[in-house]
Amino acid sequence: MAIEFLLNKQNPDGGWPYLHGGSWTEPTVYAALALLAAGETAQSKRGIAWILRTRRSDGGWASRPGVGESSWVTALAALIPEECLGQAAHAGAIGWLLPVQGEDTTAVYRLRQWLLGSSSSIDRNISGWPWTRGAAAWVGPTSMAVVALEGEHRRRPSARVLERAQAGRNFLMAHTCREGGWNHGSTDAWGYDAPPYPETTGMALLAMNRVRSPKMESALSMGRKFLTETRSADAQNWLRLGLAVQGELPQGYAAPQGIVYRTVPEVALSHISALGGLA
Amino acid sequence: MTRRELILGAGAVALAGCTSRKATAPRPQMVSIVRAPAYDQRIYDTVRRMLADHRLDVRGRSVVLKPNLVEFEPGSSINTHPMLVHAAYEAFRAMGAASVRIAEGPGHRRNTLDLADAAGYFHTIPEFENVFTDLNVDDVSQVHLARQLSRLGKLYLPNTVLGADLLVSMPKMKTHHWVGATLSMKNLFGVVPGGLYGWPKNVLHWAGIDESIVDLHSVFPRQFALVDGIVGMEGNGPIQGTPKTAGVLVAGSDPAAVDATCCRIMRIDPAKVGYLRLAAEGGAQIAEAGIRQTGERIASVATPFALIPFFRNYRIDGPMG
């Protein structure tokens, strides 16, 4: 059913929309990966060909063609197996990701905040990724960049890649909510605690693969709680992926009845999570 | 001239009679305040009468309703109530609009349709999915900002709102922990596509929140504002505040004037709200003397919305009448 949905939603140009309309990078990556896992190689290859056609000269990808700026979706492109994407395109994606960081984690910004007394730390080992360059780092894009870099390090061990992935994990660890789990990034505003969200908690658990600490125990506890409560397809997908890499997904877990999978990412990630994950 | 510029130009001429784009010199803007004590069937008639009072001519035009959908909490006062949105949808259809769509791009949660479902939109609005566009993942076009106060530079916006003859901003009347109050102008953050800019749409914050609000407002010369103040939110809004009953709907063709009136109802000084001050500097009318108020008097419906400490100096001092 999921595969049929994805096949029907593929645009003539080979890419996928989120729901209707033109092709975007994010749904195309997830759909191509899901079809690849399902053995639907012809359609998957058409999707990957679309991804290769839309690669930008700086090695990254924009959220969709025609938008003149590479963004966080470059991390998603890097999740496509190197043998499918090609060595040069894959290396270009990793090369694009490595120096990118949120404006709020740059040395200049931190130093300024420290001088203003707004921050007690100028720790360079905490550094996340933004959705788009020129903005702050957030949990979602940081999680996907860490997952991509970790995959790269497994293939080709590199101190630089490992260091950057670790800086991203440090960012995630520094941004856990007081009650456990993750909001989009902020842990509070004006002294009010920010609540954790199921989707971002699932994504961050995926990136914090095998990390253990009291904060992680609290995050895992929140993830398990969210898994039983949420009726959102997106949240179910990310929690399943995150808890699975942590070895915390109940054996034979199946998403509750009544969850509606509407968009291409929701359907594709559901299929991927059922098959064991992105990495 | 691009196709979009042609459409905008033609639309502006065609709708000149039903909108109130500001000239350099402010002129009195009509803002109506109507009591609406509850979310019940009376809303349908109330909204029809409000729109009729404003003499909007939308015959043969495309109308996009932009509510404020933020969080999954059906019982809360975070989201614009679906019954109000349905009432506006039915009213604009009855007024002869060629098409009426509901469109929103939530800034916090990615699963827009789940969010709309939890907020009661599927239940309240027949065939909701067929009349709704998720602006976060709609097809986009690059726009040039008519004003450039922020550091936004180029901006991509969804074709659904860019192609509308009339954009109807339908916010919830809420306090906001970054800008003081979130109303019809701030509600336009929801047209910025998360698919390009992420969740939250942090690029708007880094470019200057108040400035981005005004810049974004300038992209849409044909707007109408209808504010859900039946139950709003006070305190640590726009998400973690507490429900606040104001029992009003506020409407008008000039969002800045509507927002200024809402602020006065909330007992917030609009001149202290950064984006309203910037809008006024650009010619928008926010002074009470320059707004032609119809329906209820502000004093008769004003009720102080609690403010977090940072914004306490935004409070209008003195008696309410």
Keywords:
heterodimer; A: 279 residues; mainly alpha; Glycosyltransferase; 2 domains; two-stranded antiparallel sheet; 2 strands; 52% helix; B: 321 residues; alpha/beta; Rossmann fold; ten-stranded mixed sheet; 13 helices; 12 strands; 31% helix; globular
Please provide the ordered H/E string of secondary-structure elements of chain B.
HEHEHEHHHEEEHEEEHHHEEHHEH
Give me the CATH architecture of the largest domain in chain A, please: Alpha/alpha barrel
Distance between the termini of chain B: 51 Å
**Whole-number average pLDDT of chain A?**
92
Q: How would you name the oligomeric state of the polypeptide chains in this document?
A: heterodimer
Q: Of all protein chain pairs, which has the greatest interface, and how many residues does each chain bring to it?
A: A-B, 40 and 34 residues
CATH architecture of chain B: 3-Layer(aba) Sandwich
Count of distinct structural domains of chain B: 1
Number of domains as seen in the coordinates of chain A: 2
* Overall number of strands of chain A: 2
The major beta sheet of chain A can be summarized as: 2 strands, antiparallel
Helix content of chain A: 40-55%
Strand content of the residues of chain B, in percent? Answer: 15-25%
Low-confidence segments of chain A, given as residue ranges, are none
| CA-atom Rg of chain B in angstroms | 18 Å
Output the number of helix runs of chain B: 13
Determine the fraction of residues in helical runs of chain B and give it as a percent range. 25-40%
Instruction: Give the averaged pLDDT of chain B, no decimals.
Output: 90
Please provide the count of β strands of chain B: 12
Task: Write a brief structural summary.
Chain A has 279 residues and is mostly helical.
